[in-house]
Fold each of these.
Amino acid sequence: KMAAAAGAAAVAGLWSEVNRCGQNGDFSRALKSVNKILQINKDDVTALQCKVVCLIQNGNFKEALGVINTHTKVLTSDVIAFEKAYCEYRLNRIESALKTIQSASQQTDKLKELYGQVLYRLERYDDCLAAYRDLIRNSQDEYEEERKTNLSAVVAAQSTWEKVVPEDLGLREATYELCYNSACALIGQGKLNEAMKKLQKAEELCRQSLSEDSDVTEEDVEAELAIIHGQMAYIMQLQGRTEDALQLYNQIIKLKPTDVGLLAVIANNIITINKDQNVFDSKKKVKLTNAEGVEHKLSKKQLQAIEFNKALLAMYTNQADQCRKLSASLQSQSPEHLLPVLIQAAQLCREKQHAKAVGLLQDFADQHPANAAEIKLTMAQLKIAQGSVTKACMILRSIEELQHKPGMVSALVTMYSHEEDIDSAIEVFTQAIQWYQQYQASQTRGDNPKSSVHLSLIREAANFKLKHGRKKEAISDLEELWKQNPKDVHTLAQLISAYSLVDPEKAKVLSKHLPSSDTMSLKVDVDALENSHGATYVRKKAGKLTGDNQQKEQGQGEVKKKKKKKKGKLPKNYDPKVTPDPERWLPMRERSYYRGRKKGKKKDQVGKGTQGSTTTGSSELDASRTASSPPTSPRPGSGAAVSAASNVIPPRHQKPAGAPATKKKQQQKKKKGAKGGW
């Protein structure tokens, strides 16, 4: 009995220690005391529960889940459902956590809170929204603000990923988290300017909130603002301000935030800006997208976009095998998605395997008819690149849902015209017009006016036929247009012109509907038109001006300033007492007192006369004379004497007199002359 009493006292002491440590937040010491209790009684339910809680508080979720699974007989789902689901949630076993919550016999508030988180991670946003609305309606505690923040996050996710127009929740955006989520919802709607204003407000609220804590440093503030700045940069990128976006992205990366999801998204966005340029930077950034835990931080569409960009980067860096491997993996994950097969086709085109690329696209179009339109457009583009315009037209005409679209009709007509296949172009017009006729007949009853698109197609068809000399075929189109608008004189004139070749009598009958010359004459005031502001020529009226007009003209003349004539410049040696030379305007050679140049000045007249001819200096360059005369030392500055006639350098290649020449330069000049003077 004494031993039992001592054991009970020891257990009571241990429980006191557990309670005290729990209140102080020292769960490591509490765990030691709980383990001592379990040594005394290994199946103590309360002790096992406390052990699981201590392990969770210390972040040992795997060990906590192991304790729960080991003692399933004692720790039933009713007792420890929340702890088990929470461990599974933190270990990213989301589906298992959902099953654990749904299997619980009683749905406590804690389980409902966790249920909302699980649904958000599973991207079941409609169910998640309903769960949080129920929590906010039926709960009233200090966590209300957090629930509203989570609710706004769900709405933002719906707007971003499901393109659902968010409803106004009536939440007062008093915190930066609520402002941030509201901005994300606006981005999903494409309201970028409004979203930027919300983010700026969120930044301001964040700074105010953190400034109240004296322990928070400026680095902590910047780290908290990183996600807001990242969203700002994304808006800049969407607006085409790529340089500003890139600068802000790099600033965030330099901060080295701990959120691997944020880093992965920023790195991916930088890669999209780089595209096929700056691939070395992209290869560095792609490492951030491979960080551990990224897959649990991002949505499925975000992860998919990152994988697509990895495949494209592999293609741009000529890693063909890696590109094929990534695109094949993506196609197996999303068989109906277009991008994987388009990337594979692009890689084949880079390898000059265009036929294989077209075949790959054709197989995909046959297997997935719902996505065939976009694939066939790509196939047509490849055919055009190969020069097979007619085959491209055949592919485009096989897209039934686009045959009647004005853009498709225009493209086909242009391509057929380029190939000079006018009959096929007219057939395209005819099929499109018939489609609109059938569509209008199915939608309305009776003789209703045709739609603007229908009439524009008819007019374009008529103009095309007239342009290519098919006036007989254009008559029915023109008659239809005139029937819709009998006052259209232009259409009537075209119709008469077409009938003049087929049925002249009909043309005469129709010409009676043309308006008379009196009704068509334009009543124009010629004088008013000439005097108008835009007239380029105004005729001057004959006759004298009236008194008023004369005064007006005089008044205008007073306003105009007279141009001052500039005085001519006089020579510097001008002497007003001396009479100027009357022949000063004549060239020097033509003046009466010109006596020619003074003799005695020896100047080479190089360049005068025919090209290469010389006057006074020819004797010095004559090799026949220098050979018989005794050698003399060269004049200072005159250069070395030449030794052969073939080495004579033409006058325009000679060095000017007075220039010093070294022996080295003389040798180079000789070598140059040896190759042939002229």
Amino acid sequence: MALRARALYDFRSENPGEISLREHEVLSLCSEQDIEGWLEGVNSRGDRGLFPASYVQVIRAPAAEPPPPARYANVPVGGFEPLPPPAAFKPAAQQPPPEPFPPPPAGYPFPPYGGSYQPSQGSDDDWDDDWDDSSTVADEPGALGSSYPDYEAAGGGASGRYRLSTRSEPSLGPRGAGHPPGHPHPPGGGGGGAAKSSATVSRNLNRFSTFVKSGGEAFVLGEASGFVKDGDKLCVVLGPRGPEWQENPYPFQCSIEDPTKQTKFKGMKSYIAYKLVPSHTGQQVHRRYKHFDWLYGRLAEKFPVISVPHLPEKQATGRFEEDFISKRRKGLAWWMDHMCSHPVLAQCDAFQHFLTCPSTDEKAWKQGKRKAEKDEMVGANFFLTISVPTGPGASLDLQDVESQVDGFKAFTKKMDESALQLNHTANEFARKQVTGFKKEYQKVGHSFKCLSQAFELDQQAFSAGLNQAIAFTAEAYDAIGDLFADQPRQDLDPVMDLLALYQGHLANFPDIIHVQKGALTKVKESKRHVEEGKMELQKAEGIQERCNIISFATLAEINHFHKIRVRDFKSQMQHFLQQQILFFQKVTQKLEEALHKYDSV
């Protein structure tokens, strides 16, 4: 039986991908499953696209032709609950005109007319065929979704999976039952309480802001819904410094060693592979830089309130030079240390797949890669995975949170400025040591050598010891020049590597803070509506509760940043000073050896 629907109201399309409806018009539906309050179908004029589900009534009648194929069949709905069919409405003639309809959900991928939606593909300067083939996740065993039984609607489902939703409960207001906030409904469907339900928290006008793109806005407004597995839960606990991520019960480290040049396609393509040895498996795997780059992209997309460390920068030329390979390996080692030290990132499925999948098992790699790319717990649904403290004393004071976040914002700005200054100073000092200091000390050594050669013209035996001592002093200063040239690699370069890593973290936090600030703004707006009698208290409390989840996560990430910052800079400053002491001990030793040569003169 073909799926059809009858238009209850006129609707005029205003955005690409929408189609217009005329009252009483019969449409063919591509699917009865709505996408966040929108259906796809074909109107009587043959136009195909989206229209509001609440403006039509589904009818079921036999039809000779099958429904047209849905162009949006592959668009994930993110586990959203199917909305109940619209309630029966009065004849349209008795209804006032429908209120204006907002555009489809922010970020909804509209295809061009006559085309089909294609998911975006990441790009890399070294992308090749060992990453892609024609199979899909559903075709492969163990892929996301294929290993879980269907969740039964009545009283339970798959073990370890829980249905979570932030959608508002059906109300008796004029927006009707079962529709998410922000979606208009034909008037006349409500009863009492119209005054308090007339106001909603507005959406951001800038649909490209981080708060919107991260899914933070949709979550705070109560539009997230999905299944959360036990393994997806991220717990925030109250520690001595406030909210903290729950520690990884099985901490581990991972070394990055032996970068080697390898080839493929009979030597036509070359690349550098790094050996990774995770401590919790002891099994080595080999990864290329593009594998690191893919992982970073997935994690940055999945965790909008976590600072994913930046990778060392790419380089178009000189990728196989020894100095570049060594510098990149050190940068990747710092990156790996921060990944393993983060309680959330270290346990992420994509990161564990990256660390443990055998290098030679291409099928297993592709399955895990596609599973990560099909992860449903992203965007607004990501925030459903966060579990925060509850009970007495666990609530957050919004003013206190805002004050802490503002203080951290000022801290990161000052730290960024200081890091840039120190990096510039260290780089300039290292340059002087490698070139200027070496040249000056060797110039002094050359001058002493010239003096020794002049003294050798005197053939007196009693002056031979002096000549040899001065010649040795010349050699000592020449060696000290070499020590200066080699020293930056021992002390200043590691400092600059650490600064580069933290400059990446500092670049992440403005977006993280923006998400939290956006949530606070929605809470303030909802409180104002309650005070004006335009919003129910229960709805405003739901917005504040969801804002608290984002605030807990943000404060937990800030505390983790400070904790790891103290650890790293303590260790690095100790290393720097130890290396400086060793350096000057070597210089002193050279000078003392030269001094002793004069004792026998």
Amino acid sequence: MHTLNTTGSRDPINPNPNPNSNLDPDQFPHRNNNHPQSRRPRGFAAAAAASMCPAESDNGNIAGIGGGETSSGGGGGGGGGKGKREREKEKERTKLRERHRRAITSRMLAGLRQYGNFPLPARADMNDVIAALAREAGWSVDADGTTYRQSHQPNHVVQFPTRSIESPLSSSTLKNCTKATLDCQQHPVLRIEENLSPVSLGSVVIAENDHPGNGRYTGASPIASVGCVEANQLIQDVHSTEPRTGFTESFYVPVYAMLPVGIIDNFGQLGDPVGVKQELSYMKSLNVDGVVIDCWWGIVEGWNPQKYVWSGYKELFNLIREFKLKLQVVMAFHEYGGNAVSLPQWVLEIGKDNPDIFFTDREGRRNFECLNWCIDKERVLHGRTGIEVYFDFMRSFRSEFDDFFEEGLITAIEIGLGASGELKYPSFPERMGWIYPGIGEFQCYDKYSQTSLLKEAKSRGFAFWGKGPENAGQYNSQPHETGFFQERGEYDSYYGRFFLNWYSQLLIGHAENVLSLANLAFEETKIIVKIPAIYWSYKTASHAAELTAGYYNPSNRDGYSLLFETLKKYSVTVKFVCPGQLMSTNEHEEGLADPEGLSWQVINAAWDKGLLIGGENAITCFDREGCMRLIEMAKPRNHPDSCHFSFFTYRQPSPLVQGSSCFADLDYFIKRMH
């Protein structure tokens, strides 16, 4: 198998090896083996290094998170074989200590980004962490590292999220306060961050002058004292503007809005910058935390292999940067809307001569939504395998937008792993005539899949098992109409179990192949995998619709826990497409659907495996009741472990600036999520 060489000959544990480490120190006594390798400074270390003279910057050792390894060898006496072995052992111990330290650091940074919403750079060091904590506590930190309290402002300002109030807190205003409050009156600057909810106003950051005798406040804030009538009235007024529900004091769930597909045209250019600015401005006014944008493989690498056009996306990302919104980017390796966004033209040309690179149903019909997973390791794409094509695309994106990663603007990368960007087979293609609640068809009748199936069957000693089922019905069949999916059908026979296990393992194997390379391309960046909501036929024993999509999850087997065990190895965040009440009750009954039951199984299986999980709405229009169902799913009121979604992606049917009636309750939804 062809091996991707992504790191050259560098040691993955010791990225800056000493080129003289294998030389005998006695042969070169004039060399200083204790001198550590210099590393490129990051964060505040970079600012400090810029002000140093070249000699100082060359000899300085940058400390902090992600810093270089400590040199442990010595140039000391002896020079014998025993001393050399000791030095080698000490080097190995140093590597292990450094690796352990970096693992702890990575978890700390992930926690601060995830639960504290700290805008830390992708490769933050300890200075960045300290600065973020200091700013959170009300301090000011300049670019050169100068840290001080904001105690010399001319006016004492109180800022509320809903309005701006600027008035000096004079002695007449606080004349009824206690003596402790009057002592504090000379110095405080009461500041409430705009992104806090009204229930957080009881926690006020007080900046005070640094002078002898001025101690910290250990009791309640002076603004909350009994005598401070006007200040209390201000707080009560802000509290009263929001209806108190069970969610006002729950966890903060960031909300990201999905940008429309047509923002980038088929030539890779930004079509309407003015319209995009209007939409981003509206999103900013709704206090969304960021936006989600699809990065289409069929557009960026649309015409020639390994010729990437990023100019339109770069212009778009710069606009998003101006509005100070965070960004999640989808690596979209699938088509959208038939001809709206197709796979790359050069891939379609290959498919004309070799149509087996696409998924194929039992009738021999090809599906062009995404590439066949069985070519992940087949060199059929101009000398490259499927996973090499994906990796080259991801690596090019990471290199092109390095500054956005360094600034922390790009907070997560979602990897498209199948049809619609979800981890599933394209078993419900509307172009083939599928309509809800059809069970779909197995997509494994191309020559690569059939070869894999036959090989697996022979390894089990049953070569006649090496073919797909012939009694699994059509796209719009119902489970009871087929011999394979009916009650006590062939799905639960020895052959059925063998086939379904092989079919689902192709899905899991594809996820492993791509995610292993995604972790290399996007080191230290959160990776997201999208899981579909296939809830029809869920009330049957076979769960037929899930089986054709690749999820071996009948009523007598938990297919999601097995999948999530694999995803956990790659530290991914699961995004679950939350089903809505798009269908009537009668339609759900006819389809034997159970959206709530499926959601409960998937979400709790992810939490049980220790995975973070986010959400995305499956339908784009719903009322206040629909909002509450999503909020209840994202933030369960009585979960024993206080589990909740780590983010939520809001899909929109049309540009928000058009004022669609679908968004009458969007402001309410975002406030409740926050």
